[in-house]
Amino acid sequence: MKNIIKTKVLLLFTICTSLFFIGCDQFLEETPITSVSSDFIYENGDGLEVGVNALYNLMRRSNAGGGFYDGDRFKGNVTILAGTDLGQTRTWHRPYGASAHVATSGAMSIKWNDGYEIIDRANAIISAAANISEDDNNRDYWVAQARIIRGQMYFDLLRMYDNIILDTVATTLDNFDDPVDYTVANPADVYELIDGDFDFAISHLAYDEPYGRYNKSVARLLKGKSAMWQGIWSEAATQFDAIINESGKSLVNLNQVF
Questions:
Q1: Which of 12, 21, 165, 231 has its CA 20 to 30 A from that of 50?
Q2: Terminus-to-terminus CA distance in the chain, angstroms?
Q3: Which value, to the nearest 10 degrees, does the dihedral of the CA atoms of residues 105, 80, 199, 185 take?
C-alpha cells in the first residue's frame, strides 16, 4: 500500500514539474501584439512616422503636465508660462533666482530632463534616416519633423538654462554606459545646430500641413525668433516677411487681435 502511495506521489510530482517547466518556456516566449518595434521605427519611412508621432506625444506630456497634483511637471510649466522676475513667492519659490533656476532643482529639472529625452529620441530618428533610401515614403519629410522638434528643444533649453550640453548622438545599447561629457556648449555651436534644423524644416515642410503637425510657418517663426535672440535683425525680418507674404495667412487690424 505504501509503495502504491509513493508511486502515485512520485508520478504526481513528475507531472507537476513537467507542467511547470513547460509553462515557464511558454511564459518566456514573446509574442509581439503589434508590428511596431525599435527595428521597425528605424528601418523605413513608415517607421520614421511612428517615431515622429512618439516625439509629439513626449512634447505633449512635457508641455501639458495635467492638473496641479502632477507635481513638479505642472510647477515647471507654470513657471515657464506665467513666472516673472518677481517670482511666485506665494506659491513655491522665486523661480528665476540663481539658486533655484538650475537643472537639478525640483520643478526646474523637469523641463531639462524632458527636453533632453525628446532630443535623444529625435537624434535617433535623424541618425537612422541616413541609412534609409531617400525615396522611401517621404523620408526627408519625417526627418524635417524630427529636426524642427530637436531645434525647438535646444532653443528652449538655451533660453531657459543658458549653460547647456550639446549632444547629437542617440543613446543605444552600445553606448548607453559610456561616460557623459558635461562640458558646457558654446552658444554659437548650439545656435548653428538650431538654425540648421530650422533651415532643413523650412526646405522640406509646406505651409499647409495636417492639423497638429509643424509646418513651414512654424519653422520660419522659430528661425526668426532664433535670429532675434542672436541680434540678427535682418534675418528675423526675412523670416517673418516670408510668413506674411507666402503662407496664405494675413495680418488683421489691431482691434481684431484681442
A1: 165
A2: 95
A3: -20
10: three-class secondary structure by DSSP: helix
* Residue 89: pLDDT band with limits 50, 70, 90: very low
Apex 164 CA angle, 190 and 185, nearest 5: 50
Q: How confident is the model at residue 120 (pLDDT cuts 50, 70, 90)?
A: very high
Over residues 132-158, the pLDDT tens digits come to 876 665 889 999 999 999 999 999 999
DSSP state of 102: S
Q: Measured between alpha carbons, how far is residue 121 from residues 53, 77, 128, 150, 223 in Å?
A: 11, 21, 11, 9, 22
Distance CA 246, CA 36 (A): 38
What one-character-per-residue DSSP string does 192-247 give? HHHHHHHHHHHHH--SS--TTS--HHHHHHHHHHHHHHTT-HHHHHHHHHHHHHHS
Q: Are 222 and 148 in contact (CB under 8 A)?
A: yes
What digits encode the pLDDT tens for the residues 3-51? Answer: 555 565 555 656 666 655 555 555 556 665 555 555 666 777 788 888 8
Output the pTM of the full model: 0.77
Ramachandran bin of 212, using left for φ above 0, alpha for ψ from -120 to 50, beta for the remaining angles = left
Lookup: cell for 222: 522659430
- Cell numbers placing 108: 526646474
Closest of 151, 138, 141, 125 to residue 40, by C-alpha = 125
> H helices of the chain, where?
2-28, 38-41, 45-63, 72-82, 106-129, 139-161, 187-204, 216-229, 233-246, 254-257
Q: Is the distance from CB of 154 to CB of 189 less than 8 angstroms?
A: no
